[in-house]
């Protein structure tokens, strides 16, 4: 996410901070580079132009030019302006005073509406809600079947009153929720390859019959300005309340995320960061600005860990660490915890300093975890607990059983030995209540 943009901005900031004294001339030069980087990231040209104008106005103030650290002051100005551009603060979902809350999902075909419907259902269930999915895409072949499969995967019922009438399905879902104690109806509406009169009429009828609390426009984050232009047409006719940007874990330039709120005046509420049903994040403008500028997002990383890490397992591991009993079995369990949190490169991008060029050079991928798992799975229980007994013949057997090389096995064992030494040094300090997570 934003890797190219972040890398370019980091280079510009490094040069800015390298100047002992800033002048209007070198500020101008840096801002031109930033404008070029934003345009290359597919940010709307009017948005990029206004952003640079606002930054320049504040950057040329006496307080900045006479500051001891003018470069850092300008980076702070850019951060503040970027947060304002993205929406200043996160906007929560609206809820109905009398259930059910109705959330209507709209967008073009292929934007990821049906998948997001399942993700949102799972997200709301974690928040203590009891949602249903509503089949409102009756024209796309197998759309209803797809929704049923997704509903089953997230343990959420799917309402289908009429396989040919989307409006009836949506209207029926309200009474279904009230009769069966469900508090949220998620309407998975139909899409088209382009906006047409028939599509908009159907969506307007659904809106009139259900009076949704939220209308979320699902935009493919990889389509850049196309997503922004489509959103402008939708919002003019439907007046939706928020955006969801999907596929933000892919090779996206990020222009849609930066432009879409400024162009439409509508807040971004969620982003999709992977294919799994829990790969959804609430949108926080300040955290996103921090990621874009290469400052990481530790708060989101900690929240993700708190949601997914098994606390009992963490406490058990802490005791083993204290006794210096950390084994390859423990290491394997920690890998499983990491996998639950999402793609490795996405997690690393949340760590300050591990974005942009640093992340590009690191070459982190989930295939390396799969290889390590295969090697550990090829070991006997005794070998996992006492890796010191793994001699040459055992290494050849483990390599053959895991489909890897002896060199791969040697590398893992070497890294594990270094890890044990590090843990031994850590035991000199107190870390009560702080389970060690890899």
Q: Would you give the CATH topology of the largest domain?
A: Rossmann fold
The helix content, as a percent range, equals 55-70%
Taking all Cα atoms into account, the compactness measure Rg is: 25 Å
Question: Globular, elongated, flat, extended or rod-shaped: what is the shape?
Answer: flat
CATH class of the largest domain: Alpha Beta
The tally of structural domains comes to: 3
Alpha carbon gap, first and last residue: 23 Å
Largest sheet: 8 strands, mixed
Average pLDDT, rounded to a whole number, is: 80
CATH homology superfamily name of the largest domain: P-loop containing nucleotide triphosphate hydrolases
Poorly predicted spans? 429-438
CATH architecture of the largest domain: 3-Layer(aba) Sandwich
Strand and helix order: HHHHHEHEHEHEHEHEHEEHHHHHHHHHH
Beta-strand percentage range? 5-15%
The structure class reads alpha/beta
